[in-house]
Amino acid sequence: MVALSTRQKLEILADAAKYDASCASSGTAKRDSRGSKGIGSTEGMGICHAYAPDGRCISLLKILLTNSCIFDCHYCINRRSSDVRRARFTVQEVVDLTLSFYRRNYIEGLFLSSGIIASSDYTMEQMVAVARSLREEHDFRGYIHLKTIPDADPELAHQAGLFADRLSINVELPTQAGLERLAPEKDGVRIEGAMAGMRHAMEDMGEARRKYRHAPRFAPAGQSTQMIVGADDASDSAIITRASSLYDRHRLRRVYYSAFSPIPSPSAVLPLRRPPLLREHRLYQSDWMMRFYGYGAEEVASATDPVTGCLPLDIDPKLAWALRHRDIFPVDVNRAPREMLLRIPGLGVKAVNRILASRRHRRLRLDDVARLTTSIKKLRPFLIASDWRPVQLSDQADLRSQMTPAPAQLDLFS
């Protein structure tokens, strides 16, 4: 094998990491190195080509330790049988790259994943060694996210949590049948067992910190996971139900959805075409409905097509749910509780908070609601204001056609 330079390795292993979406950092502990010999800081905000609340674009170094792997998962470009160029970083190379990029103000943290080399334990030891070196030898106080390996020794996962801000274990596919078909070397029971162990460790360390001031933090940004959408025949309804179950049982911070993307030299069992990217977007919207709008998984699933079990692509899932439950609309913005206001299509959390604050001082008219939201068009059939009652609109049988945006040709040079 020809020896590769660090730059060549970076080109290969940064590109190989692009398929992993679960790399935001919201909710981590705030740290800085002012008044110390350390390096780096965290703001508790999102990282990985994201925008912070103050408008800053912040990012992290997102790489694999190696793209070599002893597993042969059909959907993975780095699988054992794939004909791709292989590379591997040493622990010291990853540490040096992270510190060098940070000092140049290129990054604010590290996201590190890896293919499985030699064994799960050996690979996990190498990843923990990177985090340990950054924290203990260089006093690095930036963000670190480690992708943990469910087959590895639980003690290694525990050590990872002591050095990393966030840990994640990918469930890979929404159903056990899909996992058995496309990733037969992975075990869904072991994956969920590792996630449960992570949750218990976080709860135990959290309890210890409440009792003892100097108890160490354990993965303060929590754990996340990712599901591949469209590689198997799982419906959106099944994906939504699985995501809700993961949130409830393992207290996940986020579930990420990644639309399957055809890879070079694909396995014969994979679909020939990728799913619409809009499907991934609709699943993120449904996830938002469960996390911030108070919908249950069965409610969101009721917005799917009864035949295909998939969410409509032409309208968002909140509007689809409202059209399926027109009997509860319109909602009076001057009297309805917060949970009902959140179900009005077109009203977000911030807009609802503004409405609740404003109606304490006066009865709201339709123009008042329009000033508190970005657009009033979608809201009109679903709300009642002091001067507005949508009798004709709410009774129309073709309401969906009126709410569906008309197709438009995008301007190439806009």
Automatic annotation (TrEMBL):
SUPFAM superfamilies: Radical SAM enzymes, RuvA domain 2-like. Keywords: Iron, Iron-sulfur, Metal-binding, S-adenosyl-L-methionine. It comes from the Bacteria. Its cofactor is [4Fe-4S] cluster. Residues 59-286 form the Elp3/MiaA/NifB-like radical SAM core domain. The keyword GTP-binding does not apply. The keyword S-adenosyl-L-methionine applies. GO terms for molecular function: catalytic activity; iron-sulfur cluster binding; metal ion binding. InterPro entries: Aldolase_TIM, DNA_rSAM_put, Elp3/MiaA/NifB-like_rSAM, Endo/Exo/Phosphatase_dom_1, rSAM, rSAM_sf, RuvA_2-like. NCBIfam families: rSAM_link_UDG. This is Elp3/MiaA/NifB-like radical SAM core domain-containing protein. It comes from Sphingobium xenophagum.
